[in-house]
Each structure stands twice: as structure tokens, then as C-alpha cells.
Amino acid sequence: MSLSADENSEKKPLPEGVSEPDAMLLEQLGQLGVNLGEKRIIEYGFVASSLSDAEALCLCLQDMGHEFVDMPGSSGLDDEGNDPAFDEDRAGIWIESSELITPLDAAAKTTRLQLLASEFNCKYDGWGTCVDNQPTAE
Questions:
Q1: Which pTM does this prediction carry?
Q2: How many Cβ atoms from other residues are within 10 Å of residue 91's Cβ?
Q3: Residue 56: which residues within 8 A CB-CB, separation 6 or more?
């Protein structure tokens, strides 16, 4: 199921400090039955333009308690000597970290993670979570 905003839906005031895209994601998660105040695994995406920037960001995220799903050097080099974490579509090195946190707290961290990523010449790509037991059409 694709999570996208319905352009015809009535706009609700955004929670303080939460961006509009995060507020729309929170609304969609709530509609899917996700308890927004319950801790769950949240995954964050980052893109770095160099291996040294990626490694520096990873160290900082690790100090913040993040675990890594995908990071530079995590799977070794491929047969051609390239790091498979380099993502051609994103034109950079893809980093994916995760932590056990509520969706509300993840949304509140967006600005802080954007600023942190920029300190290391990286781009914060956003956050997400898996949704189980999606409603099925009958």
C-alpha cells in the first residue's frame, strides 16, 4: 500500500514542530491502525556524497543509539571493488539506520536529523516504519 496524501482531505493543524510531510505520514499511519504513541522500529534514510562523510555521520548516529540496516562497508566490496551501499538513483552513499521509538517522537526529530546530516555534508531522506496487518479489500 502506498502512503500518500489525499489532496482532497481536510487539512488539520500540524502538531508543534512537525513538518507537513511528517504530519501527513502520521495521519496515514493512524488511519492504518498504528498507535502513534507506541514504540516501534523506525528506519531513517540518509545520503552521503563521500565515504568519509558517511562514516562520520554513522559514528554520530551510533552514539545516538541508532542501529544500522545499511551503511558504507557493511556488506564489503562487490566483485568490481565498489561499495554496494552507493546508490546510483540517489547519487550517493545510502545509509539506513533504525531505532525503537514512537512515530510521534520520530516526526519530532526530523529537523534535528536534517541539521545533523548537513553537518556531515549528507542529506536526510526521511523516516518510515513497517505496517503489519493492513486492511484487505473484500
A1: 0.74
A2: 10
A3: 120
- The domain limits of the chain are 37-128
Q: How far apart are CA 120 and CA 41, in angstroms?
A: 25
DSSP 8-state assignment for residue 72: T
Query: Beta strand 67-70 with 92-101: parallel, antiparallel or unpaired?
Result: antiparallel
Decide if 59 contacts 95 (C-beta within 8 A).
no
- Helix 110-119 to helix 51-63 angle, to the nearest 10 degrees? 140
Q: For residue 90, count other CB atoms closer than 10 A to its CB.
A: 14
Successive 10-residue mean pLDDT values, the chain, 138 residues: 37 69 94 94 93 92 88 53 54 88 94 96 95 62
Which cell is 82 given?
A: 565498489
C-alpha cell at 23: 504530519
pLDDT of res. 86 = 53
**Does residue 44 contact residue 110 with C-beta atoms inside 8 Å?**
no
Structural element, H or E, at residue 74? none
**CATH of the domain spanning 37-128:** 3.30.70.970
